[in-house]
Amino acid sequence: MSQTDDDLDAALTTVADARGRIAARSRKGDVVSLVIEAGGLAAPARAALERQIRAALVAVQGVRDVRIAMTEDKPVRTVIAIGSGKGGVGKSTVSANLAIALARAGRKVGLVDADIYGPSQPRIMGSHERPEMVEKTIQPVSAWGIRMLSIGQLVEAGSALAWRGPMAASALGQLMDADWGDADTIVVDLPPGTGDIQLSLVQKWKPAGAVIVSTPQDLALIDATRAIDLFRKMDVPLIGLVENMAGYQCPHCGELSDPFGSGGAEAAAKVMGVPFLGRIPLTLTLRRASDAGAPPAAGEGEEAELFAALAAKLLEQIAAR
Predict the structure, then answer these.
(1) What are 226-246's pLDDT values in tens digits?
(2) In a 10 Å sphere around its CB, with 0-12 CB exposed, 13-18 middle and 19+ buried, how is residue 228 labelled?
(3) Which domains does the chain have, with CATH numbers?
(4) What is the pTM of this model?
(5) Of 205, 220, 260, which is closest to residue 87 (Cα–Cα)?
């Protein structure tokens, strides 16, 4: 060890907070480079520590410049996958409203529209704002008390995305690795089925659990069973099954009917040993609100209360696991 190295060691011992935080150190000529473990330090403390270390080292004879890199805390986020076995069951509507209901329950929520080939969240959330890019990282946009990102915000409306699997998986990575700030929960609206996007999400961003959306009809439940089987095979806990379009009330006469059957999802959940989170009726209010970009979970009334109840059950399942 050279005299300069000894002097560097001595100088660093004068900075109390530097002890135990030096992850790596190198010297090339008169330039010293340090990597500091700064996890758990607030921004002012990080800045103060950097100033103290720099001042101590530049005072060492033979040191002209000090380069310091500080690590950051890797945020711990709960990733919730919202899936379905087939399209047309209202999965995206459920995803958007659940995300908002979770935010109203106190969580800091991000919503990822991972349906790369058929993004619908910009319409449902009423947000077509183009996200900004800062230092090669996408900045999510804010809508209805949450942050959100969709490939639909990044491409021209109505454009067909003829991407092969690797390109779609890369797009998912751009969305998932965006700057989600202090978000503690990321709700991922998956494409229908069991394909590349689902596999990529599970392998790289291991969800804390999955919610499966289905209508009551047998055909939808057959496909929902496949989605459940995929998550089970990949060791992703099943948070529960949501029965969407569960009954329709005529706005004119008030008569209730079941165009997609009744109770099928709850019965299937019982057979498969999956928690049943609840039913969402097929209502004109919900359809209009989704088309208008005004999710009912953000307001008041029966629909808002319904999604709040679903969010509460979801959080119970997450906590229990």
Answers:
(1) 899 999 999 999 999 999 888
(2) buried
(3) 3-70 (3.30.300.130), 78-320 (3.40.50.300)
(4) 0.76
(5) 220
